[in-house]
Design a protein that fits this description.
It is built from twelve helices and 17 strands. By secondary structure, it is an alpha/beta fold. It folds into three domains: 192 residues, FAD/NAD(P)-binding domain (3-Layer(bba) Sandwich); 56 residues, no CATH class; 80 residues, Alpha-Beta Plaits (2-Layer Sandwich), CATH 3.30.70. The strands form three sheets. An eight-stranded mixed sheet has the order 6-7-5-12-13-14-11-15. The chain has a six-stranded mixed sheet with strand order 9-2-1-10-17-16, with helices on one face. A three-stranded antiparallel sheet has the order 3-8-4. Helix 1 runs parallel beside helix 6, helix 1 packs parallel to helix 12 and helix 3 packs across helix 12. The protein starts with a strand and ends in a 17-residue tail after the last helix. The mean pLDDT is 96. The chain binds flavin-adenine dinucleotide. The site of flavin-adenine dinucleotide has 39 residues, from helix 1, strand 2, helix 2, strand 3 and helix 8. Flavin-adenine dinucleotide binds next to helix 1, strand 2, helix 2, strand 3 and helix 8. InterPro entries: FAD-dep_OxRdtase, FAD/NAD-bd_sf. This is Glycine/D-amino acid oxidase. Pfam families: DAO (PF01266). One of its GO terms (molecular function) is oxidoreductase activity.
Length: 351
């Protein structure tokens, strides 16, 4: 079977690998070089997803297992998956209560969450400033972080070893692109909306949910963190070479899509010393702005496109978490076998 995979972000790369391993003749077509995609710059926190939706939770739990299968199957490659967990805390009574409610929700689902004292937290991350912590620090030991810029070349190389061909170019119209292929798998992130007009993805800046996002990569710091940190107002993950990636949800809401974002990047950076005092001399090394591929109802879209024979789509704003499992599932489904874990994610729910 000849399959065209459109997109070489995390979703396209993982799907291409699993399809090629399953014996499909795979061509990957990507508008950009993989290292310039959203996936290569993403925050990369992979976790159980409690959206009060058991199908999403079950999929994300399987995703954490699939992360490890991917590492094992790709074999000799630089490390991209780090299993050090995630620390989360509040700054006042209201935010501490909100954190507690989130943690209790996960515990009810059977997902482990520990409550740490400041002293215990310091043992994990000695560099953090924790004087203003309100309530316990919640530690999610099963959460992981993924370095997209390391994963992508490793997985695409492995896919090529398994026979996939990778081409850089634009798909243009889907009908033209699919000429000569038995099936097309659209993994174009936000670009899926151009390939499949009417696909229910939110427009950038739509008020319903956060779509635009800005990620700051810092210069190397002397004492970086080793795990995902969600401090009040600032999220941090380790990058390679002692660098950090910083993200502020509230500042994402100020992005308009026009003009210079360096002032916003500077605001993000200015929050760092209050959380990690020894990183006070860090500078902005790189700024990335992207648009989350956000389905209208906040759930992922996975499955065949109704009315378009042989066309399958994946669009998700949890792409770094779900890519390994969705790659496995899409490969099976494109080759003809339905998978129960994605039954709730079909496009037909919008009909
Ligand atoms: C600020 C921010 C933080 C985030 N944090 C997290 C997080 O912590 N955890 C998490 O799981 N997710 C997170 N996400 C979301 C995650 O980054 C995305 O869900 C994921 O990167 C999407 O992967 P993708 O492969 O679908 O798309 P992309 O990585 O965007 O790749 C799309 C690919 O399609 C190609 N393409 C597009 N249009 C065409 C076309 N017409 N022809 C040919 N090729 C085309 C592109 O060139 C590219 O190769 C975050 C997103 C943002 C913005």
């Amino acid at each position: 079977m000849k399959v065209l995979v459109i997109g070489a972000g995390a979703i396209g790369a993982c799907a291409a690998l699993r399809l090629a391993e399953a014996g499909a003749r795979v061509t990957v077509l990507s508008r950009e070089e993989p290292l310039t995609t959203l996936s290569a710059h993403s925050f990369g926190w992979a976790n159980a997803i409690d959206e009060k939706n058991s199908a999403y939770y079950d999929l994300s739990i399987e995703a954490l297992a699939a992360q490890q299968r991917l590492v094992a199957d790709v074999g000799e490659a630089p490390q991209w998956l780090f299993r050090h967990g995630n620390l989360h805390w509040g700054r006042d009574e209201a935010s501490a209560e909100a954190q507690q409610a989130i943690a209790d929700g996960y515990r009810e689902l059977g997902y482990p969450v520990e409550e740490l004292t400041v002293a215990q937290t310091r043992e994990l991350e000695p560099g953090l400033a924790l004087a203003d912590v309100a309530g316990p620090v919640h530690f999610y030991p099963r959460d992981v972080h993924v370095l997209g810029h390391v994963l992508l070349p490793a997985v695409l190389d492995k896919a090529q070893e398994a026979g996939a061909e990778v081409r850089i170019g634009t798909a243009g119209s889907l009908d033209e692109a699919r000429e000569g292929f038995d099936a097309v798998l659209c993994c174009a992130g936000r670009g899926n909306a151009d390939l499949l007009p009417g696909l229910p993805l939110l427009e950038p800046g739509a008020p319903e949910r956060l779509t635009r996002g800005l990620l700051v990569r810092t210069t190397p710091v002397a004492e970086p963190v080793t795990r995902i940190i969600h401090a009040p107002g600032l999220s941090i993950r380790p990058h390679t070479g002692g660098r950090l990636v910083l993200h502020c949800h509230d500042l994402d809401r100020t992005l308009t899509g026009d003009g210079d974002v360096s002032a916003v990047a500077q605001q993000v950076l200015e929050r760092l010393p209050a959380v990690l005092p020894n990183a006070a001399d860090a500078e902005v090394e790189h700024v990335f702005t992207g648009v989350r591929p956000m389905p209208r109802d906040g759930m992922s879209i996975v499955g065949p496109v109704p009315g378009q024979d042989g066309v399958y789509v994946i669009a998700t704003h949890s792409g770094l978490t779900l890519a390994p499992v969705l790659g496995e599932i899409a490969a099976r489904e494109v080759l003809g076998e339905e998978h129960p874990l994605v039954e709730q994610f079909r496009l037909t729910r919008f009909a």
